[in-house]
Design brief:
The chain is mostly helical. It has three domains: 196 residues, Ankyrin repeat-containing domain (Serine Threonine Protein Phosphatase 5, Tetratricopeptide repeat), CATH 1.25.40.20; 139 residues, Ankyrin repeat-containing domain (Serine Threonine Protein Phosphatase 5, Tetratricopeptide repeat); 60 residues, Ankyrin repeat-containing domain (Serine Threonine Protein Phosphatase 5, Tetratricopeptide repeat, Alpha Horseshoe), CATH 1.25.40.20. The protein starts with a helix and ends in a 15-residue tail after the last helix. Keywords: ANK repeat, Repeat. It holds the Pfam family Ank_2.
C-alpha cells in the first residue's frame, strides 16, 4: 500500500494535512492497491473524525465518486457494508451520494450498494437503506445470482455478510449480528419502496422460499407474515418445482409448525403438487424425520390435506410413512393419516403395492407395529398386488429379516389366507420355500404356515407343489423341510403338468439323501 492509502484511512488529526501534501506531489487517479481500491475506497472506511474531511478533499481534488476496484465495487459498495462502531458511514455515504455516487452501480456479481446495505449485518443497515432510497436506490435489480435486495435482507443472518461485507474489521463485525427487529424493519422498508416478495433468483426462489428454507430455531413468523401480507405467494414453485409450503413441510426446525400455520392462513395449498416426484406438503410431512412431523401432519390435515394423494409413482402419504418414517412419531403419524381417511389398501403405480405390502416386506424395527395398525384400520391381508399379484402374506413369507416371522404370524392371526394364490398360482408356502434366503427363518415360517392350514400339495401354474420345489432345493435344512411337508400331508407322488413327481425329481436332480424308498414316507 502506498503512503497515499495509509493516509486516507488513518485516524489521526494529522491525516488531512498529510493527504494535502501528498496530493500536491502525486496524481490520484492512477494509484491502486493490489485489489484495485483507490483513496476513495479507503476513505469510506475511515473511522476517525477526519473521515468526512478526507472524503471532501478527495472529491474536491477531482476523484471519480464511482471509481471501481478490481471487483467492480465502488466506494459506495464498500461503505454500504462497512461495520464500524460509530454511525459515521451514514455521513460519508451521504457526502458521496450528494457528489454523484451511484446507488445502483453494479459490481462483478451484479450487486448494487442497495443489495449490500440490505444484507449488511451491522446495526446501521436500516439507516443506510433509507439513505440509498432517498437517492433513488432501486430495489428491483437482480444480481447475477438473481438475488434482489429483498432476498439479501432475508439472508442477512444466514450468509453472515460473506457476500456483503469487506474483510476490514471482520472479527469485530461478527459481534454485531443484526437484531430480529432490524431485519423486520429492513424488509418493511424494502417492500415500501417497491420490493417484490415474489421475485425469483437463479434457482427460482423468492424471498419467501429463502425465509422458510433458512429458517433455524429463531422465530421468523413476523417476517413471514409481513411478506405474505405484501403479496408473497406460498404456492410459488421454484426450479425444483417446490413451493415455500413444501419446504415448510420438510423442515425439521422447531418453528416449522408455526410457519406452516401462517402459510396456510395466507392461502397455502395443503395438496399442492410439487417436486420432481409430484408430492404434496402432506406427503413430505408424513416422511419428516424431525420431532415435529406429527404436528405438521395434523396442521395440514386440518387444512384439507388429502391422505390418499399420490405422487408420480402412485405413493400416498400412508405409503411413505410406512416405507420410510421410522422416527418416534412415525406410528402416530400413520394412525392419524388412517383416521383421516388414508387408504391402507391403495396400490401404488410403480410396484402395485399397498401400504400393507410395504410393511410386510419391510426390514425396519417398526414393521410389526405398522402391520397391526394397518390391519386395525381396514388393511386387507389378502389383497393382491405387485407384478406377480402377491398378497401381503406372500411378501411376509419372502421377508428374510428378523421381523419376517412375526409379521407372518400377525397376518395369519388377522385373516391372512395361507393358500392365497398370486398370478402364477403360487401360495405363500411356494414363495417361502423358493425365495426366503434365511434358512432357519424359512423353516420356522413354513412350520407356521402348515400349522395354519397351508396346503403342501397346492400346484402352481405348471402344477408344481411345495414338495416339488423342496426336493430340488439343496439347501442346508432341505431334508428337514421335506420331512415337515410330508408330516403335514405332502405327496411325493403328485404329478405336475409334465407328469413329473417329486420322487422322480429326487432321482434326477435332487440330493441322494431324498431318494428314500417310497414306503418310508407316509403318503
Amino acid at each position: 500500500m502506498s503512503p497515499m492509502y495509509g493516509n486516507s484511512s488513518v485516524l489521526g488529526d494529522s491525516a488531512l494535512e498529510l493527504l494535502e501534501l501528498l496530493l500536491e506531489k502525486r496524481g490520484i487517479d492512477v494509484i491502486w492497491d493490489r485489489d484495485g481500491k483507490t483513496l476513495l475506497h479507503f476513505a469510506m472506511i475511515n473511522e476517525g473524525d477526519c473521515g468526512p474531511k478526507i472524503l471532501k478533499k478527495l472529491l474536491e481534488s477531482g476523484m471519480n465518486p464511482n471509481v471501481v476496484d478490481k471487483h467492480n465495487k465502488t466506494p459506495l459498495h464498500l461503505a454500504s457494508v462497512s461495520l464500524n462502531i460509530e454511525n459515521q458511514n451514514i455521513s460519508l455515504m451521504r457526502d458521496l451520494l450528494e457528489n454523484g455516487g451511484d446507488p445502483n452501480a453494479l459490481d462483478e456479481d451484479g450487486w448494487t450498494p442497495v443489495h449490500c446495505a440490505a444484507g449488511d449485518w451491522g446495526e446501521y443497515g436500516y439507516e443506510k437503506l433509507k439513505l440509498l432510497f432517498l437517492f433513488e436506490g432501486d430495489v428491483s435489480i437482480n444480481g447475477t445470482d438473481g438475488l434482489t435486495p429483498l432476498h439479501c435482507a432475508i439472508l442477512m443472518e444466514e450468509n453472515n455478510g460473506s457476500k456483503t461485507r469487506d474483510n476490514t474489521n471482520n472479527d469485530e463485525a461478527k459481534q454485531r449480528i443484526a437484531t430480529k427487529k432490524d431485519q423486520i424493519n429492513r424488509v418493511q422498508l424494502i417492500l415500501d419502496n417497491g420490493g417484490n416478495p415474489n421475485a425469483q433468483n437463479s434457482l427460482g426462489r423468492s424471498p419467501l422460499h429463502l425465509l422458510v428454507i433458512q429458517n433455524g430455531f429463531s422465530d421468523k413468523s413476523d417476517v413471514l407474515q409481513l411478506l405474505l401480507k405484501k403479496g408473497g405467494n406460498p404456492n410459488l414453485l421454484d426450479n425444483k418445482q417446490c413451493a415455500p409450503i413444501h419446504y415448510a413441510a420438510d423442515s425439521i426446525s422447531e418453528t416449522a409448525p408455526e410457519m406452516m400455520k401462517i402459510l396456510l392462513e395466507y392461502g397455502g395449498n395443503a395438496n399442492l403438487i410439487g417436486g420432481e416426484q409430484g408430492v404434496t406438503p402432506l406427503y413430505l410431512a408424513a416422511k419428516n424425520l424431525g420431532n415435529h412431523g406429527l404436528q405438521l401432519t395434523e396442521i395440514l390435515l386440518e387444512h384439507g390435506g388429502n391422505s390418499n394423494a399420490q405422487d408420480n409413482l402412485g405413493r400416498s402419504p400412508v405409503h411413505v410413512v410406512v416405507g420410510i418414517n421410522e422416527c418416534n412419531v412415525g406410528l402416530d403419524i400413520l394412525k392419524l393419516l388412517l383416521k383421516k381417511g388414508g387408504d391402507p389398501n391403495l396400490l401404488d403405480k410403480e410396484e402395485h403395492y399397498a401400504p400393507l405390502h410395504y410393511a410386510a416386506d419391510g426390514h425396519k424395527e417398526q414393521g410389526p407395529e405398522k402391520i397391526k395398525i394397518l390391519l386395525d384400520n381396514g388393511g386387507d391381508p389378502n389383497l393382491n398386488g405387485g407384478e406377480g399379484g402377491i398378497t401381503p402374506l406372500h411378501a411376509a413369507c419372502l421377508n428374510s429379516e428378523i421381523h419376517g416371522l412375526t409379521i407372518t404370524r400377525i397376518l395369519l392371526e388377522n385373516g391372512g389366507n395361507p393358500n392365497a394364490l398370486d398370478l402364477h398360482k403360487r401360495t405363500p408356502l411356494h414363495l417361502a420355500i423358493q425365495q426366503n434366503k434365511n434358512d432357519q427363518l424359512r423353516l420356522e415360517t413354513i412350520k407356521l404356515l402348515l400349522e395354519k392350514g397351508a396346503n403342501p400339495n397346492a400346484g402352481d401354474i405348471i402344477g408344481m407343489t411345495p414338495v416339488h420345489y423342496v426336493v430340488i432345493d439343496n439347501r442346508s435344512n432341505t431334508l428337514k423341510l421335506l420331512k415337515l411337508l410330508l408330516e403335514h400331508g405332502g405327496n411325493i407322488l403328485q404329478k405336475d403338468d409334465f407328469g413329473t413327481t417329486p420322487h422322480r425329481l429326487t432321482t434326477q436332480i435332487g440330493s441322494k439323501q431324498y431318494c428314500q424308498p417310497e414306503n418310508n414316507y407316509e403318503i
